[in-house]
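A sample follows:
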Amino acid sequence: MTETMPLEKPVTDKPLDRIIDALRDDMTAVDSILTDQLNSSTALIPQVAAHLIAAGGKRVRPLLTLASARLCDYEGDHAVRLAAAVEFIHTATLLHDDVVDGSATRRGKPAANRLYGNKPTILVGDFLFSRAFQLMVETGSVDVLRILSKASAIIAEGEVMQLATANNLATTEADHLAVIRAKTAALFAAATEVSGSLSGVGAEKTEALRVYGDCLGIAFQLADDALDYAGDAGTTGKELGDDFREGKVTAPILIAYAAARDDEERAFWKRVIEKNDQQDGDLDHAMTLIRRDNAVERTLDDARRYGAQAKAALDIFPASPLRDDLQGLVDYVVDRDR
């Protein structure tokens, strides 16, 4: 079986570097759990799962679980299990996403569904969800089960919500935010909230961690929306305009469509997004309109607003280098790879 790759250490963000360094031993333990839990007599299961897990990524979600537990002075051994469960849930949702979206690549490599087919990819995603719940049960905490099972249900709802908004320019910004909150922020929020519950720090601090994760997740996805029209493919792992080519209705598109100056511009957006009828030069024209209407910067402004709320939520905790780094992580998430 392919082993999980060690966590990549970024070279551009000092707060994230420090969090990774502080939690390196714990993340090594998480990697060991991931490897052990991928064992199966059905060879295709570890192959499909390891293909995605080994593709790298900064593992922000399990890092948040571990960092939140340390912020709460938790000293037990269940935090690494929960971090592994969070990573399994995330990986499962990515496998399902790629099938639903018909994605060709993931993190710059061929998507699992392109290599192994849709049916095996979906079923391996289900296997990972099951492994996540096994790890949750090992903590013996009903509250842990409540938090992460609720998040899993919300993520599934978010997938269905996204289907309703796909290629639909009647989608409102509130609709888009609801999808983001369900598909992305729910797991960020659960990843942090669960550590507060596990640590027994009380309802107020546990809620603060949930708010931090929720707002960080929203900021993360809004920044991701913006990166599709302003990012560097060499560092983001996605080609400029990937969302556009798939006809995805994201924040920059909604802003640009709302700012359309005449029927011709509105017809353009309807053709390329709603009908997904795209021709040579359409991406360049879309980029021109998006730049004219400052859609990327306006999206990033919204991301920074949620980021500020995430930072403020942690003020309830005593000042410490870790708290400062978690607040600094917000800036990394919003302004990454640009």
Observations:
- The longest helix spans residues 173-199.
- The longest strand covers residues 105-106.
- The beta strands are 105-106, 109-110.
